[in-house]
Amino acid sequence: MNFKFGVDTFIWAEAYGEEHLWIIPKAKELGFEVIDFAISNPFTFPVEKVKAELERVGIDCVCTTTLTPETNPISPDAEIRAEGVKAMKKCVDICNELGAPILGGVNYAGWGYLTKKPRTEEEWNWGVECMREVAEYAKETGDVTICVECVNRFETHFLNIQKMQLHSVRMLEQEMSRFISMSST
């Protein structure tokens, strides 16, 4: 396996937009080989301009996203869950367009979504159902690997211990070969 030294755009911009294109050559200038685009809103992400700048500069990329309360795949509201799937599929499209092999992040629940109760079986089933749909879409449309980032209990109650993270991956990898876990530091 060939590892590359990379940087996340999130250290410069919380919501990456066209005005942040300068980050791409800056990352290359600092010696990074890959840049991680933190996609806060896939529907406003400047895909074409980012792709052109990546090609001009000559740096590889991966993508991460953080879902919101309005795109939460474990929401009790079916319409919100559907918006989560829609947002994740758009992120997969962005990865395919940019040639990014990885889509990681808190992509299984709305970041900051806390019920002050343990995760329920219903939430688990909703999350698996949504992620299964997105993973199948990723498999059908390109070669994007979806990575699940386990975060602390102050960011979500859904996946914050590695045991549950690995359990979620194992449940999905039976059907989807392009699904792995990643750990947050």
Automatic annotation (TrEMBL):
This is AP endonuclease, family 2. Keywords: Endonuclease, Hydrolase, Nuclease. InterPro entries: IolE/XylAMocC-like, Xyl_isomerase-like_sf, Xyl_isomerase-like_TIM-brl. One of its GO terms (molecular function) is endonuclease activity. The keyword Endoplasmic reticulum does not apply. It comes from the Bacteria. The lineage of its organism: Bacteria, Bacillati, Bacillota, Clostridia, Lachnospirales. It holds the Pfam family AP_endonuc_2. Residues 26-160 form the Xylose isomerase-like TIM barrel domain. It comes from Anaerostipes caccae (strain DSM 14662 / CCUG 47493 / JCM 13470 / NCIMB 13811 / L1-92). Gene3D superfamilies: Divalent-metal-dependent TIM barrel enzymes.
